[in-house]
Write a structure and sequence with these properties.
Length: about 450
Amino acid sequence: MFGQNDPRYPLPDLDVLLVEDAASLRAIYEPHLRRAGLDTHCAATASDALSLFQRHRMKLVLIDLSLHDRDGFDLLADILALQPETAVVVIAAERSTEQAVRAMRAGALDFLVKPISEERLGEVIETARQLAQQRADLDSRSGGAPLGEFIGRSPRMQQVYGHMRAAARSQAPLLISGEIGTGKKLAAQCIHALSAYGSDGFQALDCAALTPELLEEATLTAPRAQRPDGVGLIGGTLFLDNIDEMSAPTQSRLLDIMQNHGDGKTGLPHGRRLISACAASPTALVTEAGLRRDLFYRLNVLTLTMVPLRLRREDITPIARTLLHRIAMQEGRPSMELSSAAVNAIEAYDWPGNVREMINALRSALVLNDGPELTPEMLPGEIGNMPAHPYPETPAHKSLSGLTLAEVEKLAIRDALARHNGAVAKAAAELGVAPSTIYRKLGDWRKA
């Protein structure tokens, strides 16, 4: 319920930024927020809001879309680029399915329509508090976990986040698998930061260039104060990247170290946690990559699989918008907004290089072009040339007799996509299915 904090249930400090250009509405909402125990900041313009947010980094932001000085969606993108874990709630003057879908795809927590009831506002605050509490619980164990570096909010990524938190509670060896560019090293760093040993060292080694001698130096050196080269740290995490490229002699030495020198809990001497990563599937490590079976079983105690972008397409646009703003800040250039055609192009592309490929494509587009909007022509050819609406509409009179159920399903999905100009969310709403169902079907058809 909406109201004063219950002292029996301590909650993290929750500060809120209310961005509303109508003074009369600010006068209504602000007392409600303060009565809920929130440290409340108000702004009448997007410019003032961004300035306040850069100073205070609030956990909850309420944005009126109809601001006079700037589009509310632009402000939403700026805020999430600065702090992706922020709970942003969009407020609109009237109910609009198109705006609601756009807000959710941009990373908003919720979409509210004026007038906002006290009960509805209370529900949003409670959700934001729960999210803040979860993050506070994690940060209390890690000193500030970098889970915010992961931008995706799809169901698949939420499952990955849950597995990461669970893995952080253990010291057992962990194997992270995933395609190039899916964030395996970042996941290892997050798990390390979330763990009880997050304040100890994190050392990453590339197995493609790892010799038995270097491995010994990294694992067998007696504990001591941290050295400048990062070798010989007590506790902490050793991250072995590209385990599928480890040479046979190095494999033998690693197995010997784990068998004869490991502490039986973490797998390595001196209480160090071992996390390894591979681009191959875990089952292919032995059958195709040539990893020793006995070593595989020691590395594969816990398993985490990273999800490629093509299997979580609802994350593509929010990730791209956030990356665009980050890259612009790095390059010292004005940021760009994605045109609707560019959104269609990036969502139709399979991104075989995943987020790493996306970063390169967006950096190239931003550095080599000027203007407020990024269009498909600015993207590398194979991305920018993706058809915006690659699903030709089936004539309504086309006979369905003789078609299998799977073929009828395919026609129905393609027709819906054509009617909605390739907008998966709208097509899914018309068909009464989840957007993830359509993305999964499209992926299956591409493989066929």
